[in-house]
Every structure is written in C-alpha cells, then in structure tokens.
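Input set for joint prediction.
Command: fold jointly, output tokens.
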Amino acid sequence: SQKIEQNSEALNIQEGKTATLTCNYTNYSPAYLQWYRQDPGRGPVFLLLIRENEKEKRKERLKVTFDTTLKQSLFHITASQPADSATYLCAPVGSSNTGKLIFGQGTTLQVKP
Amino acid sequence: GAVVSQHPSWVICKSGTSVKIECRSLDFQATTMFWYRQFPKQSLMLMATSNEGSKATYEQGVEKDKFLINHASLTLSTLTVTSAHPEDSSFYICSARPRTGQETQYFGPGTRLLVL
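tokens >
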C-alpha cells in the first residue's frame, strides 16, 4: 500500500540555521509533490509544489528538492526564524488529477531564538 | 486571494444531535471540495471528495450515511455529522480546488467539534 513517511520526532534548531525536513514515499509514483504548513488549531497553508521533472524549487527562504529515484523530497528553510515554528506536511500526488491529497504525518519544527 | 472559510469555527453538541459545517470559497469557484478529519497529534485524513452537482465520493471506512455531504454550488459545500457521538469529536477541515484546474488546494481554518 502507499506509504508516506516524515520524521515523526520534532526538529529543534537554533534561529538562523537551516532546517531540513524529509519526506519519503513508497509504492507511489507521484506526478508532483506539495508541501504545506500547519499551525496548531488551523488548516494547512500551501507552500510549494514540485513536479516529477523538476529537481529543485525555491521560494524566498524555502527550497524543495524531489528525487524520484530515491522516492524522497527534502524541504529546507534557510535562515530560520521562530515564526517558522509549525508542523510541515508533505503530500505526494498521483497523475490521476482527482486532487485527492494523502498527507504524511508531518514534522513539527521548533526554532529557538 | 484564494480564501476558504468554515463555519462554525467550533461547536459543542450533545450526543445524538446532528451538526452542520459549512465550507465556502470566498473569492473563487471550486468544482471540487474535500473534507478531512484530524485527531490530536495525527495528520489529516481525507474523508470524502465533493463535486458540485453530484454525489460525494467517500474514502474507505467513512460512513456516507453518517457524514452527509452536499455541494450545492460552486462556492459552498456542507458536511453534516448525523447522530453525533463522542468518538466523532475531532477537527474537521475542508479544502477547495479552484475551477481553473490548479493543482493547489486551499484549506479552510477548520471546525472543532466536541460531542458530549
């Protein structure tokens, strides 16, 4: 069955450092992969989308990579700030275009000042 | 742009009653809306896909008679939890996919349901 794995343990880093979050998937051939941010008690907010033919995507301090051979996506936040503290969710999406999102369990990032 | 609202933001009800949750896309039309449920410390679980003007498609294990979904217009979908029980207490979140066919979905702020 399809499986999505994110680091279940919280990631604690110091302000100013780069945070790297991992998303691994199995039994999947996603056409693209999305990353979302979720704050406690709130709905997810879309951050970035990367397609299978793209190796890397950037948006301000965010960078996403997509390795279809390793079946892995990495999400980087450079120059991290305490305001970046949240849970980050990845969602690989198949090519069927149904729009259905199956999320990983999320990684909680805590940036300390 | 691309704002999705939910109403109510939280609701407390007695066991056995029904609760309706509204999901609206405020500044775009959505042919498809999705309903998710999230328990504490867990990720979002897709419950059903709601297409405007047609019946909803439910994920395996989700009771369609218990979670009634109506998508009457391109900007509104409703989820009714019928005969709610304490185990239905959860955080319910909707998302909307723009009619323009974008892959991105926009999520509502969620509705916290507590069934006593």
